[in-house]
């Protein structure tokens, strides 16, 4: 028991920017390993466009302006149903209307790839360096850290913020590494992957209309699927991704990128 607690404490205290630690993240990926995944693909597309333009103009509210959004819209990865819905609802496109673009920009900022300056978004020195093809592995690792450690995952959650999930995220991923290597139902998975404190907090937050499984879909499963680390057996065209009726499993990219130094 002490060994397990020591391991969980080490996961919680790990410096994600360092190569060591109990949660290991490969730096040897190539763009082809994750280019199909929506979030890394969209972040790269966004950064390449901003780099080519020498900066992307912003609105008074700090969003990408309408001309930039409409110019990049066709290049942003999203489900066909979601794209069709956006075009049907909006006569013009503002950044908040294109959630996949908005998320990519916010996560890129959290990862340290972008920064606002003089009414434009510019690539940072780090962003310019990691956008190079020979830095593809470090790009993905930095994006993973930015998304799951510094970006607030509650951004995509319909209900309230539950910081305990993100605070114990490495332990959750460690459990999922063992539990969802093959097709596993989403229903009831919380008990198998959450530590006691976040599990209690999730159950307190659950309601008749937003159960614990749906909380974890928003907080954990959909973000991991956007990174190409999970797949699900639902309708690929569904704009909402994983549902409580889905089954999920880790992908080849997960097994290539993530592993754990655990020797009980």
Strand order of the largest sheet: 2-4-3
Termini Cα gap: 9 Å
Domain count, please report it: 2
* Structural class assignment: mainly alpha
Task: Classify the beta-strand content into a percent band.
Answer: 5-15%
Q: Would you mind describing this structure in some detail?
A:
With 264 residues, this protein is mainly α. The chain has two domains: 2-28 and 156-260, no CATH class; 35-145, Arc Repressor Mutant, subunit A (Orthogonal Bundle). Helix content is 51%, strand content 9%. The chain has 14 helices and eight strands. The protein has helices at residues 2-13, 31-34, 38-53, 66-72, 80-89, 99-110, 125-131, 136-150, 163-167, 169-179, 190-193, 196-205, 212-226, 252-257, and strands at 23-25, 56-57, 114-117, 120-123, 184-185, 230-232, 247-250, 258-260. Strands 2-4-3 form a three-stranded antiparallel beta sheet. The protein has a three-stranded antiparallel beta sheet with strand order 5-7-6. A hairpin with a 2-residue loop joins strand 3 (114-117) and strand 4 (120-123). Helix 3 (38-53) crosses helix 6 (99-110).
Keywords summarizing the entry:
Arc Repressor Mutant, subunit A; 264 residues; single chain; globular; 9% strand; mainly alpha; 51% helix; 8 strands; 3-stranded antiparallel sheet
Briefly, what is this?
This protein has 264 residues and is mainly alpha-helical. It is 51% helix and 9% strand. The mean pLDDT is 92.
């Amino acid at each position: 028991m002490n060994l397990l607690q020591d391991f969980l404490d080490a996961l919680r205290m790990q410096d994600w920017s360092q190569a060591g630690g109990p949660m290991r993240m490969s730096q040897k990926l190539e763009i082809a390993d994750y280019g199909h995944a929506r979030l890394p693909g969209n972040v790269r597309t966004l950064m390449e466009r901003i780099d080519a333009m020498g900066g992307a103009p912003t609105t008074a509210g700090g969003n990408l302006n309408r001309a930039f959004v409409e110019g990049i819209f066709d290049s942003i990865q999203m489900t066909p149903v979601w794209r069709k819905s956006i075009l049907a609802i909006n006569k013009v496109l503002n950044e908040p209307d294109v959630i996949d673009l908005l998320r990519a920009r916010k996560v890129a900022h959290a990862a340290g790839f972008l920064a606002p300056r003089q009414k434009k978004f510019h690539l940072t020195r780090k962003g310019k360096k990691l956008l190079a093809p020979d830095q593809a592995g470090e790009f993905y690792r930095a994006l993973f850290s930015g998304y799951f450690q510094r970006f607030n995952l509650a951004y995509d959650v319909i209900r309230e913020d539950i910081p305990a999930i993100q605070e114990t995220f490495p332990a959750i991923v460690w459990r999922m590494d063992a539990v969802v290597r093959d097709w596993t139902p989403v229903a009831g998975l919380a008990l198998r992957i959450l530590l006691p404190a976040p599990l209690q907090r999730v159950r307190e937050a659950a309601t008749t209309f937003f159960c614990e499984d749906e909380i974890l879909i928003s907080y954990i499963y959909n973000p991991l699927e956007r990174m190409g680390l999970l797949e699900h057996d639902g309708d690929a065209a569904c704009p909402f991704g994983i549902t409580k009726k889905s089954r999920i499993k880790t992908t080849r990219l997960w097994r290539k990128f993530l592993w754990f130094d655990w020797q009980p």
